[in-house]
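Blinded run. Sample ID left blank on purpose so nobody reads anything into the name before looking at the predicted structure. Input follows.
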Amino acid sequence: MKKGTADTIEAATDIAQLAEDAKTLLAATAQVAEQRVVDARKRITAALEDGWDYVSEKTMAGCRATDDTIREHPYHSVGAALGLGALIGFLLARR
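Blinded prediction complete.
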């Protein structure tokens, strides 16, 4: 796996964990109205939006790169898909 792909997967995992923690925190502090808590909630929400934007941009860049590669090498892509499908079919049939 390429280093960029591993970094993207790691970033997505980190963002997902952050989002889950933030949702839990936001739910726990929903009734608290102190200014510090309100400010913290705003910062968390902004951080989640920034993280989502980052992951979305990286994902779309990967999709565009994949699309470009498939368009440049259509027969190689079909051959690779056929080979992968045959391998998966063989492995599933062995069960």
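Unblinding after everyone has recorded impressions. The first helix runs from residue 3 to 28.
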